[in-house]
Amino acid sequence: MKTLYKQYIVVTLAVIVASITLSMLLLGQIYNAQVQPNTDAQNFEVAQEVKQILSTMPGDSYDAYFKSIAKFGYQLTISDAAGETTHYGNPFKKADVTPEMSAIIGTDQVYHGIQDYKETFFFMNHFANDVQNTIGVPFLLNGEPHALFIRQGNATLFSEMHFLIVGFIVISAIIILGTMVLLARQLVQPLKQLQQATEQIAQENYDIELNIERDDELGHLATQFQKMAKRLAENDQTKKDFINNVSHDFQSPLLNIQGYANVLKDADNTEEERIQYLEIIEQETKRLSALTKQLLLLSSLDQKNLPIDKKHYALDQQLKERVFSKRWKLDDKQMELVYELEPIEIFADQHLLEQVWDNLLSNAIRYSEDRGKIVVSCSKKGDVVQVVMQDYGIGIPEEALEKVKERFYRV
After folding, report:
1. SS3 for 98?
2. Tens digits of residue pLDDT in 302-321
3. How far is 147 from 310, CA to CA, in rounded Å?
4. Residue 319: its pLDDT value, please?
């Protein structure tokens, strides 16, 4: 697998190589257009001065003069009509004088080897240590026609400033490459954290902490990723709560049906009691049917898009039905039930409030002692309807009151 880090390094190196290649091509064009002609002209001026001085010198001092010029960093080749050559200064790597070069002997022509030299690539022609890469001028030596071929040696061309420039370029390239590597590592490290976090989420582990503090796109991505993980954790918890709610909401009507079914087995029940118990069982089965339709409502509550079905109905009648549905539980625990219900009509979701009253009554019975007492009342004061379900059971510890509204919290 190609990692992003390796790809980044490869791309960086490719960009550097491409930049260097393009730079060399451009430098080659600049060298061919400006530097090469200028260098040729400068060396031609030197050759002309040497030729002029030679014309005024005695014949026995030529050799010493050529040696003195070579000491100033020049490379010289003297060629006669017979093709014999003499070299001064650092020797040429390629020292063969071509017929084209020899053709200027005894004429007024000039050999512009520096301007026309194309043996190597780009601007490296400037440093070619070849006798053909010279300026050639004809002159007389002891009355005999000769040719002088001259150029500056590479040691002279590479001055201290040139070495500084080359060193600057090399050091800059190393620093740039090192910086790119560090930047690549800083870029890839957050992505590795995000990759590991993604793997944890795939394993349903949503407790993720990303140590990415950046004020850029990666930092924004990390922030949004953590928000996503938190949202997934909430959805996962909602799913678990949904299962708990299903179990919790189905338990009460099922227990009621089971309880009254057991009561119906008693042969001492009157016909009126049997009908009443059967009606309660029927109500509880209807309630189960309604609960199956409301299972999705719990999920909708968490997602804040619950469709509330409000209508006008009698609150006192609803409370009375809920109280009677718990009658068998009250009888089992020999508990006293007192209810004071004013005739009140409200505009609300009947099924949701039914679950509220059922939960409160179930808890009141469950946590009350045998032969206890439960009081249920509803009253209206102005625009406020008050429902009270009071028991005399074990109560709730004061330190747990703050957690009463938490789902399924128990003490």
Report:
1. coil
2. 555 566 889 999 999 999 99
3. 116
4. 94
Q: Is this structure's pTM higher than 0.70?
A: no
Cα–Cα–Cα angle for 357, 359, 361, nearest 5°? 65
The residues, ordered by sequence, that sit 6+ positions from 353 with a Cβ below 8 Å of its Cβ are 315, 318
* Residue 15 pLDDT class (50, 70, 90 cuts): confident
Residue 122: predicted pLDDT: 63
Phi, then psi, of 50 in degrees rounded to 5? -60, -45
Classified as helix, coil or strand, 286 is: helix
Distance set, CA 237 to CA 307, 310, 407 (Å):
22, 29, 12
Residue 192 tokens read as 């590795």
Phi first, then psi, for residue 164 (nearest 5°) are -65, -40
Exposure string for 185-221, b = 16+ CB within 10 A, e = fewer: eeebebbebbeebeeebeeeebebebebeeeeebeeb
43 pLDDT above the threshold of 70:
yes
* Residue 176 confidence (pLDDT): 79
Alpha carbons 144 and 81: distance in angstroms, whole number: 8
The tokens of 88 are what? 């001064």
pLDDT digits (tens, 9 = 90+) for 244-261: 767 777 787 888 888 888
347 sits in which H/E element: strand 345-349
Query: At CB < 8 A and 24+ separation, what contacts does 323-329 make?
Result: 323/361, 323/376, 324/280, 325/256, 325/280, 325/283, 325/284, 325/358, 326/256, 326/361, 326/362, 326/365, 327/280, 328/256, 328/259, 328/260, 328/263, 328/277, 328/280, 329/255, 329/256, 329/259, 329/365
